Amino acid sequence: MWEAELANVRHALSSNIKKIRQERGLAQERLALEAGVDRTVVSKIEREVTNPSIEVLVKISVVLDVPLTALLTK
Q: CB burial class (10 A; 0-12, 13-18, 19+) of residue 60?
């Protein structure tokens, strides 16, 4: 039951980060650099390969200048 919800949240997160990043004109590498994470982390999040920590999500939301909830909203 919770697996489906996790998949939905992971998909929303992936889509939202990619969409907002592209709207801001940022490459994955630039977002990662400004957030202080490796570029592969951003790539893995956008491809729904990994579950990022809260710390990484907060860093990304700050760089994208959006509330954390904007990244997780379906």
A: buried
Identify the pLDDT of residue 7. 93
The residue type of 64 is: L
Tokens of 52: 């990022």
CA 61 vs CA 16, 44, 69, 70: distances in Å: 11, 16, 9, 8
Q: What are the residue boundaries of the structural domains of the chain, listed by start?
A: 2-72
- Global pTM reads 0.93
Q: What is the pLDDT of residues 3-31, one digit of tens each?
A: 999 999 999 999 999 999 999 999 999 99
Give the class (CATH, top level) of 2-72. mainly alpha
